[in-house]
Amino acid sequence: MLVSGLLCVLCACGGFGVSDVTGTGNGTRGTSGNICPLLLVSFDGFRADYLDKYPFPNLRKFFSDGLLVDHLTNVFITKTFPNHYSLATGLYAESHGILASQMYDPETKKKFSLSNDSDPFWWNEATPIWVSVQNSGYKTAAAMWPGTDVRIQNSTPTHFFKYNPHVTFQERLGNLTKWMIEDSSVKFSILYWEEPDRTGHISGPENKAAMTTALKEVDDNIGILMDRLKQAELWEKINVIIVSDHGMAQCSQDRLIRLDSCLDPHNYTIVDLTPVAAILPLSDPIKVYNALSKCNSHMKAYMKELIPEELHYKHNQRIQPIILVADEGWTIVQNGTLPRLGDHGYLNSLRSMHPLMAAHGPAFRKGYKISSINSVDVYPLMCHLLGIPAMPNNGSFNAVRCALVGESCLDVAVVVGIVIGVLLVLTTLTCMFRLMKSSSSSSSRPFARLELQEDDDDPLLE
Ligand SMILES: *[C@@H]1O[C@H](CO)[C@@H](O)[C@H](O)[C@H]1NC(C)=O
Ligand SMILES: *[C@@H]1O[C@H](CO)[C@@H](O)[C@H](O)[C@H]1NC(C)=O
Ligand SMILES: *[C@@H]1O[C@H](CO)[C@@H](O)[C@H](O)[C@H]1NC(C)=O
Ligand SMILES: *[C@@H]1O[C@H](CO)[C@@H](O)[C@H](O)[C@H]1NC(C)=O
Ligand SMILES: *[C@@H]1O[C@H](CO)[C@@H](O)[C@H](O)[C@H]1NC(C)=O
Ligand SMILES: *[C@@H]1O[C@H](CO)[C@@H](O)[C@H](O)[C@H]1NC(C)=O
Ligand SMILES: [Zn+2]
Protein backbone atom coordinates (compact mmCIF):
# COMPACT_ATOMS: atom_id res chain seq x y z
CA MET A 1 0.00 0.00 0.00
CA LEU A 2 2.77 2.37 1.02
CA VAL A 3 4.72 1.48 -2.10
CA SER A 4 1.80 2.07 -4.41
CA GLY A 5 1.00 5.31 -2.60
CA LEU A 6 4.57 6.48 -3.12
CA LEU A 7 4.46 5.59 -6.80
CA CYS A 8 1.27 7.60 -7.08
CA VAL A 9 2.96 10.69 -5.72
CA LEU A 10 6.08 10.20 -7.79
CA CYS A 11 4.60 9.76 -11.23
CA ALA A 12 0.82 10.25 -10.99
CA CYS A 13 0.23 6.85 -12.46
CA GLY A 14 2.53 3.87 -12.43
CA GLY A 15 0.83 1.49 -14.75
CA PHE A 16 2.87 -1.43 -13.53
CA GLY A 17 0.16 -3.38 -11.85
CA VAL A 18 0.81 -1.92 -8.42
CA SER A 19 -2.85 -1.85 -7.44
CA ASP A 20 -4.59 -4.94 -6.15
CA VAL A 21 -6.75 -6.57 -8.76
CA THR A 22 -10.15 -6.67 -7.12
CA GLY A 23 -12.36 -6.34 -10.15
CA THR A 24 -15.97 -5.50 -9.49
CA GLY A 25 -17.06 -5.31 -13.08
CA ASN A 26 -18.77 -1.98 -12.65
CA GLY A 27 -16.06 0.62 -12.95
CA THR A 28 -15.66 1.32 -9.23
CA ARG A 29 -11.92 0.67 -9.32
CA GLY A 30 -11.05 3.44 -11.68
CA THR A 31 -10.80 6.26 -9.19
CA SER A 32 -7.75 4.74 -7.49
CA GLY A 33 -5.72 6.79 -9.96
CA ASN A 34 -2.46 4.86 -9.97
CA ILE A 35 -3.00 3.22 -13.34
CA CYS A 36 -2.32 5.41 -16.36
CA PRO A 37 -5.04 5.40 -18.97
CA LEU A 38 -4.13 3.63 -22.19
CA LEU A 39 -5.15 4.61 -25.71
CA LEU A 40 -4.68 2.18 -28.60
CA VAL A 41 -4.95 3.73 -32.06
CA SER A 42 -4.93 1.91 -35.39
CA PHE A 43 -4.29 3.49 -38.76
CA ASP A 44 -5.45 0.74 -41.08
CA GLY A 45 -2.96 -0.50 -43.69
CA PHE A 46 0.06 1.46 -42.43
CA ARG A 47 2.82 -0.49 -44.12
CA ALA A 48 5.97 -0.32 -41.96
CA ASP A 49 8.32 0.94 -44.66
CA TYR A 50 6.14 3.97 -45.49
CA LEU A 51 8.15 5.49 -42.64
CA ASP A 52 11.37 5.20 -44.69
CA LYS A 53 9.82 6.77 -47.78
CA TYR A 54 7.63 9.64 -46.51
CA PRO A 55 8.30 12.46 -44.02
CA PHE A 56 5.79 12.01 -41.09
CA PRO A 57 6.92 14.99 -38.96
CA ASN A 58 4.27 14.40 -36.28
CA LEU A 59 4.74 10.65 -36.03
CA ARG A 60 8.49 11.20 -35.68
CA LYS A 61 7.89 13.69 -32.88
CA PHE A 62 5.62 11.10 -31.23
CA PHE A 63 8.09 8.23 -31.16
CA SER A 64 11.32 10.22 -30.79
CA ASP A 65 10.05 10.82 -27.28
CA GLY A 66 8.92 7.21 -26.91
CA LEU A 67 9.18 3.85 -28.62
CA LEU A 68 9.37 2.79 -32.26
CA VAL A 69 8.95 -0.82 -33.32
CA ASP A 70 10.27 -0.87 -36.88
CA HIS A 71 7.85 -3.57 -38.00
CA LEU A 72 5.31 -5.94 -36.49
CA THR A 73 5.04 -9.54 -37.61
CA ASN A 74 1.29 -9.74 -37.88
CA VAL A 75 -0.98 -12.78 -38.17
CA PHE A 76 -2.10 -14.75 -41.20
CA ILE A 77 -4.28 -13.92 -42.99
CA THR A 78 -3.03 -10.34 -43.17
CA LYS A 79 -6.52 -8.84 -43.35
CA THR A 80 -8.11 -6.10 -41.28
CA PHE A 81 -10.56 -7.99 -39.07
CA PRO A 82 -8.33 -10.97 -38.19
CA ASN A 83 -5.44 -8.65 -37.29
CA HIS A 84 -7.44 -6.13 -35.29
CA TYR A 85 -8.87 -8.99 -33.26
CA SER A 86 -5.36 -10.41 -32.75
CA LEU A 87 -4.18 -7.03 -31.44
CA ALA A 88 -7.13 -6.99 -29.03
CA THR A 89 -6.77 -10.61 -27.86
CA GLY A 90 -3.15 -11.68 -28.36
CA LEU A 91 -4.41 -14.72 -30.28
CA TYR A 92 -3.72 -16.11 -33.75
CA ALA A 93 -6.73 -16.09 -36.07
CA GLU A 94 -7.35 -19.83 -35.66
CA SER A 95 -7.71 -19.26 -31.91
CA HIS A 96 -9.85 -16.11 -31.89
CA GLY A 97 -12.16 -17.17 -34.70
CA ILE A 98 -12.23 -14.02 -36.85
CA LEU A 99 -10.53 -15.72 -39.77
CA ALA A 100 -11.30 -13.53 -42.77
CA SER A 101 -13.46 -10.75 -44.16
CA GLN A 102 -16.00 -13.33 -45.33
CA MET A 103 -16.68 -16.48 -43.34
CA TYR A 104 -19.02 -19.43 -43.42
CA ASP A 105 -19.73 -21.66 -40.45
CA PRO A 106 -20.48 -25.19 -41.64
CA GLU A 107 -22.29 -26.21 -38.46
CA THR A 108 -24.75 -23.32 -38.09
CA LYS A 109 -24.65 -22.38 -41.81
CA LYS A 110 -24.16 -18.74 -40.72
CA LYS A 111 -22.36 -16.24 -42.92
CA PHE A 112 -20.10 -13.38 -41.85
CA SER A 113 -19.13 -10.38 -43.91
CA LEU A 114 -17.75 -6.92 -43.21
CA SER A 115 -21.24 -5.48 -43.52
CA ASN A 116 -22.85 -8.25 -41.45
CA ASP A 117 -20.49 -8.71 -38.53
CA SER A 118 -22.62 -7.97 -35.48
CA ASP A 119 -23.62 -11.51 -34.49
CA PRO A 120 -21.61 -12.20 -31.29
CA PHE A 121 -21.38 -15.82 -32.44
CA TRP A 122 -18.32 -14.96 -34.55
CA TRP A 123 -16.48 -13.08 -31.81
CA ASN A 124 -17.19 -15.13 -28.69
CA GLU A 125 -14.31 -17.60 -29.12
CA ALA A 126 -12.06 -14.93 -27.56
CA THR A 127 -12.25 -12.19 -24.95
CA PRO A 128 -11.06 -8.82 -26.29
CA ILE A 129 -9.12 -6.56 -23.96
CA TRP A 130 -11.94 -4.06 -23.50
CA VAL A 131 -14.10 -6.79 -21.95
CA SER A 132 -11.25 -7.87 -19.63
CA VAL A 133 -10.63 -4.26 -18.61
CA GLN A 134 -14.30 -3.97 -17.64
CA ASN A 135 -14.20 -7.28 -15.80
CA SER A 136 -11.36 -5.77 -13.76
CA GLY A 137 -13.59 -2.91 -12.69
CA TYR A 138 -12.62 -0.13 -15.09
CA LYS A 139 -14.56 1.56 -17.87
CA THR A 140 -13.64 1.64 -21.57
CA ALA A 141 -14.35 3.79 -24.62
CA ALA A 142 -14.17 2.81 -28.28
CA ALA A 143 -14.35 4.56 -31.62
CA MET A 144 -15.02 2.27 -34.58
CA TRP A 145 -12.39 -0.40 -33.85
CA PRO A 146 -13.65 -3.65 -35.44
CA GLY A 147 -15.80 -5.59 -32.98
CA THR A 148 -16.33 -2.75 -30.52
CA ASP A 149 -19.98 -2.33 -31.51
CA VAL A 150 -20.71 -6.04 -30.99
CA ARG A 151 -21.90 -7.57 -27.70
CA ILE A 152 -18.94 -9.88 -27.15
CA GLN A 153 -19.04 -12.12 -24.05
CA ASN A 154 -22.24 -10.24 -23.33
CA SER A 155 -20.72 -6.77 -23.15
CA THR A 156 -19.80 -3.86 -25.35
CA PRO A 157 -17.29 -1.18 -24.33
CA THR A 158 -18.79 1.22 -21.75
CA HIS A 159 -18.87 3.95 -24.44
CA PHE A 160 -18.85 3.18 -28.16
CA PHE A 161 -20.17 4.16 -31.60
CA LYS A 162 -21.93 2.07 -34.19
CA TYR A 163 -19.51 1.67 -37.07
CA ASN A 164 -19.87 4.44 -39.63
CA PRO A 165 -17.02 5.12 -42.07
CA HIS A 166 -18.31 8.66 -42.70
CA VAL A 167 -17.56 9.90 -39.17
CA THR A 168 -14.40 12.00 -39.37
CA PHE A 169 -11.20 11.33 -37.44
CA GLN A 170 -11.74 14.52 -35.43
CA GLU A 171 -15.23 13.51 -34.36
CA ARG A 172 -14.10 10.02 -33.31
CA LEU A 173 -11.17 11.48 -31.38
CA GLY A 174 -13.21 14.35 -29.93
CA ASN A 175 -15.92 12.10 -28.52
CA LEU A 176 -13.39 9.57 -27.26
CA THR A 177 -11.38 12.19 -25.36
CA LYS A 178 -14.62 13.68 -24.03
CA TRP A 179 -15.48 10.31 -22.48
CA MET A 180 -11.96 10.08 -21.04
CA ILE A 181 -12.06 13.57 -19.53
CA GLU A 182 -15.57 13.29 -18.08
CA ASP A 183 -14.90 9.98 -16.36
CA SER A 184 -11.48 9.14 -14.96
CA SER A 185 -12.49 5.51 -14.53
CA VAL A 186 -12.26 5.16 -18.32
CA LYS A 187 -8.82 3.53 -18.34
CA PHE A 188 -8.80 1.99 -21.80
CA SER A 189 -9.73 3.68 -25.07
CA ILE A 190 -9.44 2.35 -28.57
CA LEU A 191 -9.63 4.25 -31.87
CA TYR A 192 -9.69 3.16 -35.49
CA TRP A 193 -9.11 5.11 -38.71
CA GLU A 194 -9.52 3.73 -42.27
CA GLU A 195 -6.48 5.39 -43.87
CA PRO A 196 -3.96 4.76 -45.40
CA ASP A 197 -5.65 1.42 -46.24
CA ARG A 198 -8.35 2.98 -48.40
CA THR A 199 -5.93 4.91 -50.61
CA GLY A 200 -3.53 1.96 -50.72
CA HIS A 201 -6.29 -0.22 -52.21
CA ILE A 202 -7.55 2.34 -54.70
CA SER A 203 -4.24 3.75 -55.97
CA GLY A 204 -1.72 1.07 -55.04
CA PRO A 205 1.16 1.63 -52.58
CA GLU A 206 3.50 2.52 -55.45
CA ASN A 207 1.44 5.54 -56.45
CA LYS A 208 3.72 8.15 -54.95
CA ALA A 209 1.41 11.15 -55.46
CA ALA A 210 -1.69 9.50 -53.99
CA MET A 211 0.21 7.96 -51.10
CA THR A 212 1.93 11.27 -50.31
CA THR A 213 -1.45 12.93 -49.89
CA ALA A 214 -2.96 10.07 -47.86
CA LEU A 215 0.06 9.69 -45.61
CA LYS A 216 0.27 13.42 -44.99
CA GLU A 217 -3.33 13.29 -43.84
CA VAL A 218 -2.52 10.37 -41.53
CA ASP A 219 0.41 12.31 -40.10
CA ASP A 220 -1.78 15.40 -39.67
CA ASN A 221 -4.23 13.24 -37.73
CA ILE A 222 -1.41 12.09 -35.45
CA GLY A 223 -0.63 15.78 -34.86
CA ILE A 224 -4.31 16.44 -34.08
CA LEU A 225 -4.28 13.49 -31.68
CA MET A 226 -1.26 14.83 -29.77
CA ASP A 227 -2.72 18.35 -29.63
CA ARG A 228 -6.08 17.08 -28.43
CA LEU A 229 -4.48 15.05 -25.64
CA LYS A 230 -2.38 18.05 -24.61
CA GLN A 231 -5.48 20.30 -24.53
CA ALA A 232 -7.24 17.70 -22.42
CA GLU A 233 -4.24 17.66 -20.06
CA LEU A 234 -3.89 13.95 -20.68
CA TRP A 235 -0.70 13.94 -22.75
CA GLU A 236 1.73 13.60 -19.84
CA LYS A 237 -0.22 10.86 -18.09
CA ILE A 238 -1.62 8.69 -20.85
CA ASN A 239 0.13 5.79 -22.56
CA VAL A 240 -0.60 5.87 -26.29
CA ILE A 241 0.16 3.01 -28.65
CA ILE A 242 -0.15 3.60 -32.38
CA VAL A 243 -0.36 0.38 -34.39
CA SER A 244 -1.64 -0.94 -37.65
CA ASP A 245 -3.06 -4.23 -38.81
CA HIS A 246 -1.14 -4.94 -42.03
CA GLY A 247 0.79 -3.44 -44.92
CA MET A 248 -0.10 -3.25 -48.61
CA ALA A 249 1.23 -4.79 -51.84
CA GLN A 250 1.03 -3.44 -55.38
CA CYS A 251 -1.25 -5.48 -57.65
CA SER A 252 -1.45 -5.52 -61.43
CA GLN A 253 -3.68 -6.58 -64.29
CA ASP A 254 -0.65 -8.65 -65.38
CA ARG A 255 -0.76 -10.69 -62.19
CA LEU A 256 -4.24 -12.22 -62.29
CA ILE A 257 -5.15 -15.80 -61.42
CA ARG A 258 -8.45 -16.75 -63.07
CA LEU A 259 -10.13 -19.68 -61.34
CA ASP A 260 -12.72 -20.09 -64.11
CA SER A 261 -9.94 -21.06 -66.50
CA CYS A 262 -9.06 -24.01 -64.23
CA LEU A 263 -12.31 -25.36 -62.88
CA ASP A 264 -16.03 -25.17 -63.61
CA PRO A 265 -17.43 -22.75 -60.97
CA HIS A 266 -20.30 -25.20 -60.33
CA ASN A 267 -17.84 -27.53 -58.59
CA TYR A 268 -17.24 -25.28 -55.58
CA THR A 269 -18.45 -22.35 -53.54
CA ILE A 270 -16.15 -19.40 -52.88
CA VAL A 271 -16.45 -18.21 -49.28
CA ASP A 272 -13.65 -15.64 -49.55
CA LEU A 273 -11.68 -14.82 -52.70
CA THR A 274 -8.38 -12.96 -52.68
CA PRO A 275 -5.49 -13.08 -51.98
CA VAL A 276 -6.40 -16.06 -49.78
CA ALA A 277 -9.37 -17.95 -51.20
CA ALA A 278 -11.55 -20.13 -48.98
CA ILE A 279 -13.03 -22.90 -51.09
CA LEU A 280 -15.92 -25.18 -50.19
CA PRO A 281 -15.93 -28.04 -52.74
CA LEU A 282 -19.31 -29.19 -54.03
CA SER A 283 -17.99 -32.29 -55.77
CA ASP A 284 -15.11 -34.67 -54.91
CA PRO A 285 -12.73 -32.48 -52.80
CA ILE A 286 -9.61 -34.25 -54.08
CA LYS A 287 -10.55 -33.58 -57.70
CA VAL A 288 -11.35 -29.96 -56.91
CA TYR A 289 -8.04 -29.64 -55.05
CA ASN A 290 -6.10 -31.21 -57.94
CA ALA A 291 -7.64 -28.83 -60.48
CA LEU A 292 -6.93 -25.77 -58.30
CA SER A 293 -3.41 -26.78 -57.29
CA LYS A 294 -2.40 -26.92 -60.97
CA CYS A 295 -4.16 -23.67 -61.76
CA ASN A 296 -1.32 -21.13 -61.57
CA SER A 297 2.31 -21.28 -60.47
CA HIS A 298 1.76 -18.07 -58.44
CA MET A 299 -0.90 -19.65 -56.26
CA LYS A 300 -0.53 -22.42 -53.71
CA ALA A 301 -3.43 -24.72 -52.83
CA TYR A 302 -3.74 -26.51 -49.47
CA MET A 303 -6.10 -29.15 -48.24
CA LYS A 304 -7.07 -27.90 -44.77
CA GLU A 305 -5.20 -30.74 -43.00
CA LEU A 306 -1.97 -29.79 -44.77
CA ILE A 307 -1.94 -26.05 -44.12
CA PRO A 308 1.52 -25.34 -42.61
CA GLU A 309 1.39 -25.16 -38.79
CA GLU A 310 3.45 -21.96 -38.72
CA LEU A 311 0.59 -20.05 -40.33
CA HIS A 312 -1.54 -20.83 -37.25
CA TYR A 313 -4.45 -21.04 -39.64
CA LYS A 314 -5.77 -24.55 -39.46
CA HIS A 315 -7.45 -25.47 -36.19
CA ASN A 316 -10.86 -23.90 -36.57
CA GLN A 317 -14.05 -25.24 -38.08
CA ARG A 318 -14.58 -22.02 -40.03
CA ILE A 319 -11.48 -22.69 -42.12
CA GLN A 320 -12.79 -24.22 -45.33
CA PRO A 321 -11.63 -27.61 -46.73
CA ILE A 322 -9.35 -25.96 -49.33
CA ILE A 323 -7.50 -22.66 -49.16
CA LEU A 324 -5.59 -20.96 -51.97
CA VAL A 325 -2.79 -18.51 -51.21
CA ALA A 326 -1.65 -16.10 -53.93
CA ASP A 327 1.96 -14.92 -54.20
CA GLU A 328 2.72 -11.34 -53.20
CA GLY A 329 1.06 -8.89 -55.61
CA TRP A 330 -1.06 -11.54 -57.36
CA THR A 331 -4.84 -11.38 -57.36
CA ILE A 332 -7.29 -14.29 -57.49
CA VAL A 333 -10.46 -13.65 -59.53
CA GLN A 334 -13.07 -16.00 -60.97
CA ASN A 335 -12.91 -14.27 -64.31
CA GLY A 336 -12.84 -10.61 -65.31
CA THR A 337 -10.40 -7.85 -64.39
CA LEU A 338 -8.31 -6.54 -61.53
CA PRO A 339 -10.56 -5.36 -58.67
CA ARG A 340 -8.01 -3.03 -56.96
CA LEU A 341 -4.46 -1.78 -57.37
CA GLY A 342 -3.33 -2.54 -53.86
CA ASP A 343 -4.13 -5.48 -51.60
CA HIS A 344 -3.15 -7.33 -48.44
CA GLY A 345 -3.95 -10.70 -46.93
CA TYR A 346 -0.81 -12.41 -48.25
CA LEU A 347 1.64 -14.43 -46.12
CA ASN A 348 2.54 -12.73 -42.84
CA SER A 349 6.21 -13.52 -43.48
CA LEU A 350 6.28 -10.88 -46.26
CA ARG A 351 7.77 -7.52 -45.27
CA SER A 352 5.23 -5.66 -47.42
CA MET A 353 2.50 -7.07 -45.15
CA HIS A 354 4.08 -5.81 -41.92
CA PRO A 355 2.71 -2.72 -40.18
CA LEU A 356 4.54 -0.47 -37.75
CA MET A 357 4.07 0.33 -34.09
CA ALA A 358 4.98 3.36 -32.03
CA ALA A 359 4.27 4.26 -28.42
CA HIS A 360 4.52 7.24 -26.10
CA GLY A 361 3.75 7.86 -22.46
CA PRO A 362 5.01 7.60 -18.89
CA ALA A 363 5.47 3.83 -19.17
CA PHE A 364 7.78 3.98 -22.18
CA ARG A 365 11.48 4.74 -22.43
CA LYS A 366 12.29 7.78 -24.56
CA GLY A 367 13.93 7.30 -27.94
CA TYR A 368 13.86 3.51 -27.67
CA LYS A 369 13.87 1.34 -30.81
CA ILE A 370 13.04 -2.32 -31.33
CA SER A 371 13.37 -3.82 -34.78
CA SER A 372 10.49 -6.29 -34.59
CA ILE A 373 7.94 -7.97 -32.33
CA ASN A 374 4.87 -10.07 -33.05
CA SER A 375 1.57 -8.25 -33.16
CA VAL A 376 0.20 -10.79 -30.65
CA ASP A 377 2.74 -9.39 -28.14
CA VAL A 378 0.85 -6.08 -27.98
CA TYR A 379 -1.96 -7.66 -25.93
CA PRO A 380 0.16 -8.87 -22.97
CA LEU A 381 1.95 -5.49 -23.04
CA MET A 382 -1.38 -3.66 -22.71
CA CYS A 383 -2.57 -5.95 -19.90
CA HIS A 384 0.68 -5.24 -18.09
CA LEU A 385 0.28 -1.47 -18.54
CA LEU A 386 -3.26 -1.66 -17.16
CA GLY A 387 -2.35 -4.03 -14.34
CA ILE A 388 -5.03 -6.51 -15.33
CA PRO A 389 -4.68 -10.28 -15.72
CA ALA A 390 -4.13 -11.41 -19.33
CA MET A 391 -6.30 -14.13 -20.79
CA PRO A 392 -4.46 -17.15 -22.30
CA ASN A 393 -2.78 -15.82 -25.45
CA ASN A 394 -0.06 -16.42 -28.05
CA GLY A 395 2.01 -13.34 -27.27
CA SER A 396 4.99 -12.65 -25.05
CA PHE A 397 5.48 -9.71 -22.74
CA ASN A 398 9.23 -10.33 -22.68
CA ALA A 399 9.57 -9.09 -26.24
CA VAL A 400 8.69 -5.51 -25.24
CA ARG A 401 9.60 -5.53 -21.55
CA CYS A 402 12.84 -3.64 -22.13
CA ALA A 403 11.01 -0.75 -23.79
CA LEU A 404 9.43 0.11 -20.46
CA VAL A 405 10.65 2.51 -17.82
CA GLY A 406 11.17 0.66 -14.57
CA GLU A 407 12.14 -2.62 -16.17
CA SER A 408 15.82 -3.24 -15.57
CA CYS A 409 17.11 -4.41 -18.91
CA LEU A 410 20.63 -4.33 -20.21
CA ASP A 411 21.04 -3.34 -23.80
CA VAL A 412 22.81 -6.04 -25.85
CA ALA A 413 25.24 -3.41 -27.14
CA VAL A 414 26.05 -2.31 -23.60
CA VAL A 415 26.58 -5.91 -22.46
CA VAL A 416 28.89 -6.62 -25.41
CA GLY A 417 30.76 -3.37 -24.65
CA ILE A 418 31.25 -4.31 -21.00
CA VAL A 419 32.45 -7.82 -21.87
CA ILE A 420 34.95 -6.51 -24.43
CA GLY A 421 36.14 -3.84 -21.99
CA VAL A 422 36.72 -6.37 -19.20
CA LEU A 423 38.57 -8.71 -21.59
CA LEU A 424 40.79 -5.84 -22.77
CA VAL A 425 41.69 -4.84 -19.23
CA LEU A 426 42.43 -8.45 -18.26
CA THR A 427 44.56 -9.03 -21.36
CA THR A 428 46.52 -5.81 -20.73
CA LEU A 429 47.10 -6.73 -17.11
CA THR A 430 48.24 -10.24 -18.05
CA CYS A 431 50.67 -8.91 -20.67
CA MET A 432 52.09 -6.35 -18.26
CA PHE A 433 52.43 -9.06 -15.63
CA ARG A 434 54.27 -11.35 -18.06
CA LEU A 435 56.55 -8.54 -19.23
CA MET A 436 57.47 -7.60 -15.67
CA LYS A 437 58.03 -11.23 -14.81
CA SER A 438 60.18 -11.99 -17.87
CA SER A 439 62.32 -8.86 -17.34
CA SER A 440 62.84 -9.62 -13.66
CA SER A 441 63.63 -13.30 -14.31
CA SER A 442 65.76 -12.82 -17.45
CA SER A 443 68.87 -13.56 -15.43
CA SER A 444 67.57 -16.88 -14.19
CA ARG A 445 67.18 -18.69 -17.56
CA PRO A 446 66.79 -22.20 -16.14
CA PHE A 447 63.30 -21.44 -14.88
CA ALA A 448 62.04 -19.68 -17.99
CA ARG A 449 60.63 -22.83 -19.52
CA LEU A 450 58.76 -23.77 -16.37
CA GLU A 451 57.17 -20.32 -16.16
CA LEU A 452 56.06 -20.49 -19.77
CA GLN A 453 54.31 -23.76 -19.15
CA GLU A 454 52.51 -22.24 -16.19
CA ASP A 455 51.40 -19.31 -18.34
CA ASP A 456 50.11 -21.66 -21.03
CA ASP A 457 47.57 -22.91 -18.53
CA ASP A 458 46.13 -19.45 -18.07
CA PRO A 459 42.55 -19.80 -19.42
CA LEU A 460 42.46 -16.12 -20.35
CA LEU A 461 44.97 -16.65 -23.13
CA GLU A 462 43.19 -19.54 -24.87
C1 LIG B 1 -20.14 -1.88 -7.89
O1 LIG B 1 -19.75 -3.06 -7.26
C2 LIG B 1 -19.47 -2.90 -5.88
C3 LIG B 1 -18.94 -4.22 -5.35
O2 LIG B 1 -19.54 -5.30 -5.98
C4 LIG B 1 -20.76 -2.47 -5.18
O3 LIG B 1 -20.51 -2.28 -3.81
C5 LIG B 1 -21.24 -1.16 -5.78
O4 LIG B 1 -22.47 -0.80 -5.22
C6 LIG B 1 -21.40 -1.29 -7.29
N1 LIG B 1 -21.66 0.02 -7.86
C7 LIG B 1 -22.55 0.20 -8.82
C8 LIG B 1 -22.68 1.61 -9.29
O5 LIG B 1 -23.19 -0.72 -9.31
C1 LIG C 1 -26.21 -11.77 -41.51
O1 LIG C 1 -25.75 -12.90 -40.79
C2 LIG C 1 -26.77 -13.66 -40.17
C3 LIG C 1 -26.14 -14.81 -39.44
O2 LIG C 1 -25.10 -14.39 -38.61
C4 LIG C 1 -27.76 -14.17 -41.19
O3 LIG C 1 -28.82 -14.84 -40.55
C5 LIG C 1 -28.30 -13.02 -42.01
O4 LIG C 1 -29.08 -13.52 -43.06
C6 LIG C 1 -27.16 -12.19 -42.59
N1 LIG C 1 -27.70 -11.03 -43.27
C7 LIG C 1 -27.33 -10.69 -44.50
C8 LIG C 1 -27.93 -9.44 -45.04
O5 LIG C 1 -26.53 -11.34 -45.15
C1 LIG D 1 -20.07 12.87 -30.86
O1 LIG D 1 -20.56 13.72 -29.86
C2 LIG D 1 -21.46 14.70 -30.33
C3 LIG D 1 -21.78 15.61 -29.18
O2 LIG D 1 -22.20 14.88 -28.05
C4 LIG D 1 -22.70 14.03 -30.89
O3 LIG D 1 -23.60 14.98 -31.40
C5 LIG D 1 -22.25 13.08 -32.01
O4 LIG D 1 -23.36 12.36 -32.48
C6 LIG D 1 -21.21 12.11 -31.51
N1 LIG D 1 -20.72 11.33 -32.64
C7 LIG D 1 -21.06 10.08 -32.83
C8 LIG D 1 -20.46 9.42 -34.03
O5 LIG D 1 -21.76 9.45 -32.07
C1 LIG E 1 -17.28 -31.04 -61.49
O1 LIG E 1 -18.62 -31.49 -61.28
C2 LIG E 1 -19.07 -32.37 -62.28
C3 LIG E 1 -20.54 -32.63 -62.03
O2 LIG E 1 -20.78 -32.94 -60.66
C4 LIG E 1 -18.24 -33.66 -62.28
O3 LIG E 1 -18.66 -34.52 -63.31
C5 LIG E 1 -16.77 -33.26 -62.49
O4 LIG E 1 -15.95 -34.42 -62.38
C6 LIG E 1 -16.33 -32.24 -61.47
N1 LIG E 1 -14.99 -31.81 -61.79
C7 LIG E 1 -14.04 -31.70 -60.86
C8 LIG E 1 -12.67 -31.27 -61.33
O5 LIG E 1 -14.24 -31.93 -59.67
C1 LIG F 1 -17.70 -14.44 -64.55
O1 LIG F 1 -18.09 -14.73 -63.20
C2 LIG F 1 -19.37 -14.27 -62.86
C3 LIG F 1 -19.56 -14.46 -61.38
O2 LIG F 1 -18.90 -15.57 -60.92
C4 LIG F 1 -20.41 -15.00 -63.70
O3 LIG F 1 -21.70 -14.55 -63.36
C5 LIG F 1 -20.11 -14.74 -65.16
O4 LIG F 1 -20.98 -15.49 -65.97
C6 LIG F 1 -18.67 -15.12 -65.52
N1 LIG F 1 -18.37 -14.71 -66.86
C7 LIG F 1 -17.77 -15.51 -67.73
C8 LIG F 1 -17.50 -14.95 -69.07
O5 LIG F 1 -17.48 -16.66 -67.45
C1 LIG G 1 -2.51 -19.83 -28.75
O1 LIG G 1 -3.10 -19.59 -27.48
C2 LIG G 1 -4.27 -20.35 -27.26
C3 LIG G 1 -4.82 -19.93 -25.91
O2 LIG G 1 -3.89 -20.16 -24.92
C4 LIG G 1 -3.93 -21.82 -27.29
O3 LIG G 1 -5.10 -22.58 -27.14
C5 LIG G 1 -3.26 -22.15 -28.62
O4 LIG G 1 -2.84 -23.49 -28.63
C6 LIG G 1 -2.07 -21.25 -28.84
N1 LIG G 1 -1.52 -21.51 -30.17
C7 LIG G 1 -0.27 -21.84 -30.36
C8 LIG G 1 0.18 -22.11 -31.75
O5 LIG G 1 0.53 -21.97 -29.43
ZN1 LIG H 1 -7.72 -3.21 -46.58
From TrEMBL:
<dbReference type="InterPro" id="IPR002591">
    <property type="entry name" value="Phosphodiest/P_Trfase"/>
</dbReference>
<keyword id="KW-0356">Hemostasis</keyword>
<keyword id="KW-0479">Metal-binding</keyword>
<keyword id="KW-0472">Membrane</keyword>
<keyword id="KW-1133">Transmembrane helix</keyword>
<dbReference type="GO" id="GO:0007596">
    <property type="term" value="P:blood coagulation"/>
</dbReference>
<protein>
    <recommendedName>
        <fullName>bis(5'-adenosyl)-triphosphatase</fullName>
        <ecNumber>3.6.1.29</ecNumber>
    </recommendedName>
</protein>
<keyword id="KW-0812">Transmembrane</keyword>
<feature type="signal peptide">
    <location>
        <begin position="1"/>
        <end position="17"/>
    </location>
</feature>
<dbReference type="GO" id="GO:0046872">
    <property type="term" value="F:metal ion binding"/>
</dbReference>
<keyword id="KW-1015">Disulfide bond</keyword>
<dbReference type="Pfam" id="PF01663">
    <property type="entry name" value="Phosphodiest"/>
</dbReference>
<keyword id="KW-0094">Blood coagulation</keyword>
<feature type="transmembrane region" description="Helical">
    <location>
        <begin position="412"/>
        <end position="435"/>
    </location>
</feature>
<dbReference type="InterPro" id="IPR017850">
    <property type="entry name" value="Alkaline_phosphatase_core_sf"/>
</dbReference>
<comment type="function">
    <text>Hydrolyzes extracellular Ap3A into AMP and ADP, and Ap4A into AMP and ATP. Ap3A and Ap4A are diadenosine polyphosphates thought to induce proliferation of vascular smooth muscle cells. Acts as a procoagulant, mediating platelet aggregation at the site of nascent thrombus via release of ADP from Ap3A and activation of ADP receptors.</text>
</comment>
<keyword id="KW-0325">Glycoprotein</keyword>
<comment type="similarity">
    <text>Belongs to the nucleotide pyrophosphatase/phosphodiesterase family.</text>
</comment>
<keyword id="KW-0732">Signal</keyword>
<keyword id="KW-1003">Cell membrane</keyword>
<keyword id="KW-0378">Hydrolase</keyword>
<dbReference type="GO" id="GO:0005886">
    <property type="term" value="C:plasma membrane"/>
</dbReference>
<keyword id="KW-0862">Zinc</keyword>
<dbReference type="GO" id="GO:0047710">
    <property type="term" value="F:bis(5'-adenosyl)-triphosphatase activity"/>
</dbReference>
